[in-house]
Amino acid sequence: MERLKLISALAWRNLWRNPRRTGLVLVAVSIGVWSMLSFTALLQAWSASSLQAALENLTGQGQVHARGYLDNPGVARSMPPPSGALLAVLDGTEVKRWAPRVRVPAAVQSAYKTWPVSLMGIDPARERGLSFIATAVHAGRGLDGADGTGILLGRKLAKRLHTGIGKRVVLMSQNSAGGMAERGFKVVGLFSAPPQIEDRYVFIGLARAQSMLGMGENITGVSFGLRRMAELDTFIGKLRGAAPGMDVQSWQTLRPLTKAMNQLSSSFIQVWIVIIFVLMSFGIVNTLLMSLHERVRELALLQALGLRPRLIFAQVALESALVVLLGIAIGVLAATATVLAFHRGVDLGFLARGSEWLGAGRVLYPRLDVTQFAAISALVWALGVAAGLLPIWRIVRRVPVEAINRGQT
Amino acid sequence: MEAIVICRGLGKRYGAGDTAVHALQDVDLEIHRGEFLSLSGPSGSGKTTLLNHIGGLDRPTSGEVSVDGRKLGELDKGELADLRLEKIGFVFQAYNLIPVLSAYENVEFILQLQGVHARQRRERARAMLSEVGLEKLGERRPGELSGGQQQRVAIARAMASSPAIVLADEPSANLDSAATEELLALMSRLNEARGMTFCVASHDPRVIEYTRRRVRMRDGRIEADERA
Q: Is the ipTM of this complex over 0.90?
């Protein structure tokens, strides 16, 4: 214990014998750690925003359909509204929202043009907190309810059709009997969403859609969102158990691109951390070696005085551990300050609609993930210290006699 | 008189074949408790090499060294370090002190390594510094002391652990005449008053003059061994 106190005191003082050098290592480590943590927080915000946007763009965290619907979506593959075991699971405590929907291929026709779309029959009240449509009305008003008479168009589609609020459009689709269903609707509102959604979807009341398509009370699917995403796999299993004849899928299957982007983002964070760490460890090891080569005679003296080689090794390793730890502490503080400074969001408005094309929201919200900060810091510290161990051991092994009396006989 | 150091047939060769250098050749030497001995000789004569072997800083090619009854050849690096800590004090030509510790802490360092209790440690360190006349400079770091003062701190440190022998390698090499005189007087006084055993490697005639046993070396061999 006494020896540990001794080498700790020596290590601490040695750290400050060359403040400029120590300062350089501190700057290198702290900038490295700051960039790792800040960049990770930003990338995760981007990733979370992309995922959120993807899920809110009608996917939800998962969906239930009749078998075959996902391969060939149409009114012919409808399902009855949830009941019995399926309804019990959907009404469970882990579910935040769920909504029945009708979604079929259709065409919308204005006085000027006809355009292919996906017809969405929704219950606006049930979509709140589940999909974007409940809050995305940009002009006019939302749907009255499941049996409202109006239609919502995307801004881009309205422009394409040369139509607007108060004007009428005609929806055409195939009904359950295989014939053509056609009905006129008054445009009551325009919604704002990513361009591919604005151009491809129209929304009417669920009951109106069922009536128009002759589906009775049938729907084409259910979308749901959970309170905790981590429970998704278990919940999917429960749903499949409750509705064995149905096709139950999670967002990972429904949106493989989003899943891939999410994984890519995680991999990118790891690659970034490795790159920064490698650069940083070059700096640490190089500075450590310079410092040790200047102090070889002093290390030899310590050994001549009776300090065991492993204690000398421990002392120098402790110096390295302390300087890396200090650098990490500064880096973590700086990264925390950076994340907190942007806790109200990083506005990507300057990217115009580019960010939306990429699937992310316009505002990113970097989050202070204490566990992740701690994990990255611990990893950097452990690897930073480990990187210096071999060079330290090599130098310590060389002392004492070659060093202490060099040039004397 | 009890032999503290025994060297038997000590040889050290660097390199091999035609380029081999024989730094020590068949050296037999005994150093007894309480002796004040000098190892002299020209550069390359092997005096520092011999000192390093006695101090366990180097391993011989042949022969063996014993210090206070322990054969150094049988000890590993860690055990040698322990032996140096307990039995041997060192005073080098330069780089004697740990730069980040004060004079007082440098003396205390050895005692702390030996696990001496804090209060005892403080008392002994102060007493040793006082003995070498530096009690008022205890808080200064080595960079704030003159060469002579640094050597005196090194002697205080060497004495603090009550070693069996103090090995000094060219201790006066970087000192002026007055500082050399002070240092030698101090060593002589400690030898006489405390019975401290000194083995000093030097080619400085002033140093040799002070010692009571003079071993002269040449080409790695002992050429003469005289008592004053």
A: no
